[in-house]
Amino acid sequence: MTKITNKSIHIKTQPLEYDAIVVGSGITGGWAAKEFCEKGLKTLLVERGRPVEHKKDYIGEGVKTWEMPFRGQVEKALVEKQYPVQAQCYAFNDATKHFFGNDHDYPYSTEKDKPFSWIRGNQLGGKSLLWHRQSYRWSDFDFNANAKDGYGTDWPIRYKDIQDWYDYVEHHVGISGSVENIPQLPDSKFLPPFEFNTVEKRLKAKIEQNYSDRKLIMGRCAHLSKPAQHHLEQGRGPCMARNECQKGCSFGAYFSTQSSTLPAAQKTGNLTVATNSIVHSVIYDANSNRATGVRIIDSETMQTREYYGKVVFLCASTLGTTQIMLNSVSETFPNGIANSSGVLGHYLMDHCYNAGAYADIPGFEDEFYSGRRPTGVYMPRFQNLVDKNPDFLRGYAFSGQAYREAWWEFGGKKGFGVDYKKAIQQAGGWKFGLHASGEMLPRYENQVSLHATKKDKWGIPQLHFDCSYSDNEKKMMQSAADTAAEMFEAIGLKNVHKYTNDRPMGIAIHEMGTARMGKDPKTSILNGFNQAHDIPNLFVTDGACMASSAWQNPSLTYMALTVRACDFAVKEMKAGRI
Amino acid sequence: MMKENVMDNAADQVTDKLTASETLSQVDTSRRRAMKQLTALFGGALSMSSISLAVQGYQAQKDIPGRTGKILNPQQLNLLRILVGLIIPATETPSASDVDVHGFIDNQLAFCFSKEEQLAFIRGLEKLQSTAVKQLGQAFAKCHQAQQVDLLNNLLSDLEDASGDFDSKDKDFFYRTKSLTLLGYYTSEIGATRELAYLPIPGGYRGNVPFDEVGKAWALN
User: Fold this and answer.
1) What residues 177-216 of chain A have any CB closer than 8 A to a CB of chain B?
2) In Å, how far is A406's CA from the nearest CA of chain B?
3) pLDDT score for B32
4) Does the beta carbon of B104 lie under 8 angstroms from any beta carbon of chain A?
5) CB B36 within 8 A of CB B5
6) Hey, of A245, A370, A424, A425, which one would you mutate to test binding to chain B, going by the most B CBs within 10 A of its CB?
7) pLDDT confidence of residue A401
C-alpha cells in the first residue's frame, strides 16, 4: 500500500496502474507519451487544463479582422481581470487568448522589485500551441560553458550524447532551414529553408563581406516548408505562410502536440489522457524508494484521486514541474521530492531579449514579397567563441527581418488626407531590425519556492519568485545594442536606432533550470539521463532539467533530451532496475 | 497519400466558396490546384471555426441625425466622423467615415481603453471644437473643409503654433485618432480587401516579388 505522507489533501484511490505516467502535454509531455506508447507501454498523459481538439478548437483561426469583436484587441476589463500578465506576451490577442493561462486562477507572488512574467498555456497541448517554433541545436560550446567559466555545474552530457536524438526528433517534427556548417550551431536534418526577401539577401551579402565572423542565415523553424511523405501520413500539410500560428493551424504545418505527437501516441491504443487533472504532488514510497504515482485534483469538481505508474515523467513546464516537486513532501524529502541536494527551485534562468537595433533601408521601392513568413533571419552567436569579450561572459544571437512598413506603422507618421491614404496603399519604406537573445548565467540566488501561506483556488501553495538578471546580462545587452547599431552604420543603413530595455524575466518564455542535471547528486537533481539522482523511476525532461541556458531557443533540445530519457527509462525497466 | 483525382471533386466544393471570397486570383494555377486539395484535407474546419468569434463583432451603423455613441455624445461623434474622413478620405474607395470608423472608435474606446484614456480622447475632441470656435468663429463641423485641414495642419506643425492654442496633448490626441482610424479602416472589409491587397491564405512565402505584381500594400503584412 502507498503510504500517504502529505496530509493536506484527502485522496480517493484509483485502482488502475499504468506503465508510465507523463505529467504535462506540451512539447516534452507529448513526446514522452508518443515514445512510451510506441514502445508498448500503457501510458497515462495527465494535463491540468482542458482538452483542445486539433482543428475543431482553434476558434480564432481564419476569423477575418472585421469579424473580430475588437479587431483583434482584447477587452480591457477582461485583460485586467484575467490576463494582466499573459497580455504582456507578443502573441496574446483576441484570437489566441484562450490558449493562455488565466492569471486570476493561477496566481503567484514575486519578491519586491523583482518582477517575473510567468506566461502559461494550461490546456491539452500546453505551450506547444503557442510557441514561436524556432528550432536550433546546441553545441559543445554550450555543453562546455559551465565547466569553462565556473557558473553553474558542469553538464553531464556533451553534444555526441544528444546528436542522434536531435536527428530522431527532427525527422518527425520537420525543421525548415539551411545547411551552414557553423560549429557553434550544428545543422539539423532540414526541410528546405524559407526564402530571404530581396533586401535581406542584399544585407546578408554586405554583412558577410564586412564581418568574417558573422553569418546571416534563415531562421530554422518547426514548419513543414515541404512536407515529406511521413509528415503527410501524420495528417500534416505544408505551411501556408499565414504566420498566425498561435491561433492554431488546421493544416498541422507547425509542430504541436495536437498536430504531431498526440495522434502518433493515440494510434498505438496505449494512451489514456486525463485532462482537467491538476497534479498536486508525486506519491513517494519510502520502502521501495520509488515514485508510485501522482495525486490529482480535478480542476472542475475539486475531487481528488490518485494514479499509479511504474515510471513518472514530469513534463509540466519548468516552473510547473518545480512547483509539483516542491509540493511533494515526505519524511524522506521534507523539502521537495528528489531534493536531497537542496538545489530544487534554484538556478532559474530565462533568456534576455532586451536589446537590439533597427534602421531604414533606402530604395527597393519596386521590391515586395508575398505571404507572411513564419520565421525571420538569424545571426548565430559570434562572440566569446575563440576571442574573449572583455565586457561579458557567453553570448547572444540576433534575429530579425526586413519588411516594408504596413498600414499600422503610418499612425505615427506625418500627414493625413488623400496623399496619406495613397502612401499607405503604396506600402512604406523598408525597415530592418536585429534583436538580441542572450544567454543568462545560472545563479543559485535566482530561485522559486513555495509561498508560506498563499494558495491557489485548489489549495496548492503558490510559487514565489526571487530572481533577476545580473550585471552580465545587462552588459551583454548593452553590447548587443551597440554592436547591432555599429553593424548597421557600417553597411550603410539610415536612421539607425539602438535600444535596451529592462523587461522582466519570464517574458522570453524560456524558463530553464530549477531541477538541473549534473554529475554530482550533492549539487544537482538529475543525472545525465534526466533521471532523479535520488529516485530511479522519477524523470524530469522539460526545461527544469537545464544546467545552463545557452543562447539558442531551447525547445528542440528539450525534445531530444525527452526521447533520450524515454529510451533509457524503458531499457532500465526491461533490465528490472526500475 | 494524396489521391488527386479523388480529392479534386470534394475539394472543388469546399474551395470554390473560399476562392470566390478570399482573393486567390494572384495565385497561379498549379498553386491554386494544390491549395484546393490541401483545403479539403486540412482546412475543412476553417469555415466552421470562423463563426464563434463573429457574434459580437462591431457592426457598422448608419449616421442618423442625433446619433449617439457609447461614450461620445452626438456632437463629439459627429466631429469624429469628420475627422476620420479627413484622415482617410474617399478616393476610388470609400472614406473612413463611409465605413463608420467613427462608430468603431467610439466602440473601441468604450471597451478597450481606460477611463483616463477615454477622458483624454474626449478632451481632445472638445479642444479641437473650442479652438475652431475661437479661431474661426464656428463649430469644427460647420467650417469649410479647407479651414478644417488648416486647423489640423496647424495642430501638427512642428513649429511653435503662432496662436498658442494647441499643445503636445492635442498632438498626442490627433496621433491617437490617426492610429485608431487606420485600425478601424484597414481592418474593415472594404479597407482590407478593396483598398489594400488581401490574401488570408497565401499558400507559401515568396521573398522576391516585384511590387507591381501585387500593386498595393498587403492588408496583412
Assistant:
1) 194-198, 200-201
2) 6
3) 54
4) yes
5) no
6) A370
7) 97
Distance in angstroms (rounded) separating the CA atoms of residues A269 and A42: 8
Instruction: Note the pLDDT of residue A13.
Output: 56
Cα of A135 to nearest chain B Cα, Å: 19
Cβ–Cβ contact B31 with A under 8 A: no
State the cell numbers at A522: 550533492
* DSSP conformation letters of A268-299: TT-EEEE-SEEEEEEEEETTTTEEEEEEEEET
Angle between helices B74-87 and B115-136 (to 10 degrees): 80
Residue B157: pLDDT band with limits 50, 70, 90: confident
Rounded to 5 degrees, what angle do the CA atoms A301, A303, A309 make?
A: 125
Residues 6+ apart with CB under 8 A from A172: A230, A234, A260, A264
Closest CA to A349 of A542, A477, A508: A508
Residue A137 CB partners (closer than 8 Å, separation 6+): A166, A185, A186, A187, A188, A552, A556, A557
- Per-residue pLDDT tens for B59-89? 888 888 889 999 999 999 999 999 999 999 9
CB atoms within 10 A of CB A170: 23
C-alpha cell at B77: 461623434
Q: What is the C-alpha to C-alpha distance for residues A86 and A64, in angstroms, rounded to an integer?
A: 23
Cα angle at A503 between A498 and A504, to 5 degrees?
155
Cα separation, A259 vs A240, whole angstroms: 15
Kindly determine whether residue A240 and residue B201, on different chains, have CB atoms separated by under 8 Å. Answer: yes
Rounded CA Rg of chain A: 24
Mutate to test the interface with B, among A229, A250, A418, A431 (most CBs of B within 10 A): A250
Residues of B in contact with A409 (CB under 8 A): none
Q: pLDDT under 50 in chain A at which residues? A: 1-10
> Model confidence over A270-300: pLDDT tens digits?
999 999 999 999 999 999 999 999 999 999 9
